[in-house]
Task: structure prediction
Amino acid sequence: MNRGAPYRFRLYVAGDAQNSAQAIANLNALCREHLPDRHSIEIVDVFRKPEYALAESIFMTPTLVKLGPLPVRTIVGTLSQTQPVLHALGLGTLSV
Amino acid sequence: MPQIASTMKSFRTRVAKTSPKAPTGITGFDEICGGGLPRGSTTLLVGGPGSGKTIFALQFAMHGARYCKEPAIFVAFEETSKRVKSNAESFGWKIKELGPSKLFFLDAQPMSDRVHSGTFDLSGMLAALEAQINKMGARRIVFDALDILLALLPDEAAKRREVYRLHDWLREHELTGLITSKASQEETNCIVQESFSFMQFMVDCAVMLNHTVVQGVSQRSLRVQKYRGTSFDENQSPFVIGSRGIEVAVARTSSRVQISVTNERVSSGVERLDTMLGGGYYRGASVLITGFPGTAKTTLSGAFAAAACRRRERTIFVSFDSDGAEVVRNLASVSIGLNRYIKNGCLRMVSGRTISGSAETFLVRIKALATEHKARCIVIDPVSTISSSGNELTAYGVAERLIDWSKTMGTTLVCTSLLDEVSSHLLASSPLRISKMADTWIHLNYLVQAGERNRGMSIIKSRGTAHSNQVRELILNDAGVTVTDTYTAEGEVLMGTLRWEKESAERGAKDMAEVAGRVKRVRLDAEEAELEVRLKALQVELEAKQVEKALLVSTAESREGVLLQGRSRMRELRGADTAISRQK
Result:
C-alpha cells in the first residue's frame, strides 16, 4: 500500500447524539483500516461551536469533511455504509 | 430522547403565554385569520409550484423585521438567498436595506456533490440557527421548501423524526415559524402528500395555496385549512401577487360591516336626473347604469365624473371599452369637458385594457389606483368586463367585494354594465348580478317608434330615496345631457320627433287660443265703447228734451200772460162789458 499525502478530516457532530457517536466510531475504524498513520481527525461539536456550522453551511449532522488532499469532499451521515464512503474519499479502488 | 420532555415543556410555555397573532402584513390574510399567524407556533404553508409560497414566506419575514420589531431568519433550501432577494425586489420591499441584523438569510441548499452514508439529523442546522437567533434576537423564522431537505432523509420515520425535532425546537424558542412545502395540485385540494400529512396534524396552522388556470386565466386562491384556537374564514379566498406582494381578497367580514352611512347627496351630473332621484346619488352609494351598446352609459357616467371634479373631488375613471383619451374626446362632443380636470390632476383616466388577468387582479388594481389617487368617486365603464371568459365564477365575488370596499371607503361608485340581448329578457339577472347589490340602478334603453330610435331612461331602483317612476327621454347634444319629459298619448310614451310634433302642436293651439281671446276682448271693448257713446248721446238728447220742455212751459205761460194782457187791453179799448160777457 503506497503512502500518499495525509488525510485531514473534520467531523461535525451534534453533542453526544447517537448518530454522532456512531460516526466517530465508524470514522475511527475506517481510518485505522485504510489510512493507518496518515490521517488527522478534528471533531467539531456544533452545539459548542455553532458559528462553525453557520460559516461552513453544515446543516446536517454528522457531516464529515475531507479537507485534504484536495478536492474537498463532504459526506453526510453515520458513515455506516463503508463502500460509498471509501469511494467518495478516493479510496474506493482499494479492496477491503 | 429528550423530545417528549421538551414537548411537554414547550406546551406549558405555550399555554401560559396566551400569545396573540403575528401579523403577516399580507393584505387580507390577516383579516382571514384574525390578525396573523399564531405567534410562537408553527404554520405550514403548502402549495404547488409557482403558487407563491416563497413570496408569502418572505413577506411574512420582511413584515416582521420591518414593522413588528421581530427580526427574522429566512432559511432557503431551494432557491439561493440571492435569487430570493432579487425576485422580491419588484415588490419594493427593499430587503437589502434591512440588513442581516434584521432579516438574515441562510443558504441551506443541499450541496449537489455531497455523499450520504447512514442516517443523519438536522442538529447542525438548528445549532447554527440557534447561534444566529441569539445574536440577532430573531422572533420569526421561515423554512422555505423544507421538502427539499426532507427528501434527503432515507425513510419516512427519519423524516417524521426531523420534522418533530424542528417543531419542538421552534416551540422551545418561542419562535413564530413558517414552513413551506411543495404539493401538487390535487394534493392541495385534499390531503397533502404522505410525508406531510402528519405535519398538518402537528402544526397549529396550515395554509394551502392554489394556482389554477381557468380558460387561460390564472386564478390563485388560498385557504386556511386549520388554525388551532381561533376562528377563521374557512372558505377559499382568491388572491393575487400584486405590485406590493400578495393581496388576498376577503369577503366582508364581521369586523368590516360597520360602514358610516351618510345622507349627503352627490350630483349625478344631470340636473333633472338629480331631481328624479330626489337630490342625487347618496355619497358612498354604488350606482349601476345598465343598457345596450350606445345608450349613453358612458356619457352618463362621464357627466357624473365631471360633476365630481367640479366639486373638486378626486375621481378615477376606468374605461375598458376605449382608451382614456378617446373617452375624453367623445364626452367633449356633448359638452362634458374633462380635459382641464385631467390637467389639474383631479381626474385620472385609466385605460382598463392595460389591466389583464383575473377578475381579482382587476379589483386589486382598481383598489391600488384609487388609494394612490385618493379617489372619492370612481367610475368603471363597463364593470361587466370583469366577467369575461375565464372569470365567470369569480366575477360575482369580485363585484361584491368592489362594492363592499367602496362602501367602507365612503367612495361613490358608478359602474356601467352592458346588457346583451339574452339577459335583457331577464333584467334581474344582469351580468354579475351586481344589480342586486347596487343602491341605485338606472336603466337606459332604446324605444323604437315611428322609425326612430330614442334613448329612454328609467330608475329601476334607488334605495332610500324617493324616485320618479317615469321613463324619461335622454337627449344628448352639443349643449350637454338633458333629461326631458316624455309625452304619453293613448298609453304610449312619445319620444323624439313624435314628442316634438306633439309639443309644437300644443304650442300652436295655445297661440291660436291666445289670439282668439285677444280678438274677443277688442270686440268687447268696442261694443262697450259704442254703448257708452250711445248712452252719452241719449243723455244729451234727454237734457235737450228737458230744456225744450221747460222752455215750452215758460213760453206758454208768458204767451197766456201776454194774451190776457192783450185781452184786457182790448176790453179796455172795446168796453169792459163785452169782454166780460164773452168770457162767460
Chain B has two domains: 3-250, 265-485.
